[in-house]
Amino acid sequence: MMDLQRKIAILGATGSIGTQALDIARRYPERFRVVCLTARSSAEKLFDLVREFRPRVAALDVEPETLPEDVRFCEWVLGEDSSARALQISGADDALCAVVGIAGLSNVWAALSCCERVLLANKEALVAGGDLVMERARSLNRQLLPVDSEHSAIFQCLRAREGNPVRHLILTASGGALRDRTAEEVENASVEDVLRHPTWRMGAKITVDCATMLNKGLEVIEAHYLFGMDADKIRVVVHPESVVHSMVEFEDGAVLAQLGNPDMRGPIGYAMGFPGRLPYGGEPLSLADVGSLTFRKPDTERFPCLPMAYEALRAGANAPVVFNGANEVAVEAFLGRRVRFGEIARCVRAALEAVPQREIRSLEDVFLADREARAYAQTFLGGRA
Ligand code: NAD
Ligand code: MG
């Protein structure tokens, strides 16, 4: 039996995932005691959350000018890597890792050492940390619960496998904001075009990743590590309605799917309440209103980042880290309006080709590969990075 009330840490509390998790915590005060809240720089937003949830410890990477009197009741950790340090003194049973980018890897690592369960939204940490993160979860006997909607769907479907082998994991993709644009429109898409996601409201970085479909690439790699499946057993299908969250195909051809409205509180709540299910007040799915569910093959010409992810996964070693690191630099440059949208894919491709292969044996190796990828991407993008 789970403790009646779990002590939970929300890392990246001011973001899209963090605030939706807090929505659920707010609905179930008897189930969740929020003991740790962290963010990078959104101090005012974090102060409000601290006032409401009254955690034991809170953290900001970027030091605020002042700490208001009424938030000083809790312990504050400020400066670089503050989330990981705060988590370690929080006494949390569960940590929701919802920081964006490889910046969150140190948190995931810390969460695995000090929490029973790690609720993982921060896919970049797993893509970069790969086998090291999975091995740490195994050796410390920690439960790693996926929050990404596709992985949550697969995790739920796999609970019905009854020991049977799996033929394929089938990830669904909305296709992102540029799904129906021509190659030329994709090349020159503006920040506004790209941030207008058809079905999901999310942070800026992942919304750009959806538009390049690199997000689906990160998710293929994430699925490989989480579920121990080879690249050729992981498929992607474009599904514009975002109602089927992903599927598992068994050897007899049976395909199990998990469905729901596109609302991240579904997978977030499932991870938070696991193995229980927590109603979160979302609209029930009405298939009659949805009408039809459609599926099509991804277009790898217009969206070359998806096949690149498979290449990186098959190459192994430092390639997934390089794939992720070069993308983080290019996305930031795009969001800063310094490079064209099409540059993102070219930058990632160039980094995969240029950065030499190196084995990954430790977390230091991961950070080194990430630094190499970033340095290369910066050179590739010239003064615009
Ligand atoms: P976001 O940009 O909305 O929020 C990010 C949060 O992390 C903010 O609270 C920010 O202050 C904090 N943060 C950023 N850098 C940090 C750092 N260096 N140290 C400490 N805190 C830092 O992002 P998001 O959309 O909530 O996404 C978070 C993660 O979840 C990403 O890895 C994303 O891929 C994944 N994810 C998000 C969604 C979604 O619906 N938003 C869905 C699936 C997966
Ligand atoms: Mg997803």
Kindly describe this structure.
- The chain is α/β, with parallel strands linked by helices and 385 residues long.
- Among the domains are: 6-146, Rossmann fold (3-Layer(aba) Sandwich), CATH 3.40.50; 152-204 and 230-301, no CATH class.
- The protein is 45% helix and 15% strand.
- The protein is built from 16 helices and eleven strands.
- It has helices at residues 16-27, 43-53, 82-88, 105-114, 123-139, 149-158, 183-187, 191-195, 204-212, 214-227, 265-273, 287-290, 305-315, 319-335, 342-354, 363-381; strands at 6-11, 32-39, 57-60, 75-78, 94-97, 117-120, 143-146, 166-173, 234-238, 244-250, 255-259.
- The strands form two sheets. The protein has a seven-stranded parallel sheet, sandwiched between helices. Strands 9-8-10-11 form a four-stranded mixed sheet, with helices on one face.
- Helix 14 (319-335) packs across helix 16.
- The longest helix has 19 residues, at 363-381.
- It is globular, with a radius of gyration of 20 Å.
- The chain starts with 5 loop residues before the first strand and ends with a helix.
- Bound molecules: nicotinamide-adenine-dinucleotide and magnesium ion.
- Nicotinamide-adenine-dinucleotide binds next to helix 1, strand 2, helix 5 and helix 9.
- Residues 148-150, 219 line the site of magnesium ion.
Q: What's the helix and strand layout?
A:
Elements: E1 6-11, H1 16-27, E2 32-39, H2 43-53, E3 57-60, E4 75-78, H3 82-88, E5 94-97, H4 105-114, E6 117-120, H5 123-139, E7 143-146, H6 149-158, E8 166-173, H7 183-187, H8 191-195, H9 204-212, H10 214-227, E9 234-238, E10 244-250, E11 255-259, H11 265-273, H12 287-290, H13 305-315, H14 319-335, H15 342-354, H16 363-381
Parallel strand pairs: 1-2, 1-5, 2-3, 3-4, 5-6, 6-7, 8-9
Antiparallel strand pairs: 8-10, 10-11
This protein binds nicotinamide-adenine-dinucleotide and magnesium ion.
Nicotinamide-adenine-dinucleotide binds at residues 12-18, 38-40, 42, 61, 83, 98-100, 103, 121-124, 148, 200, 202-203, 205-206, 264.
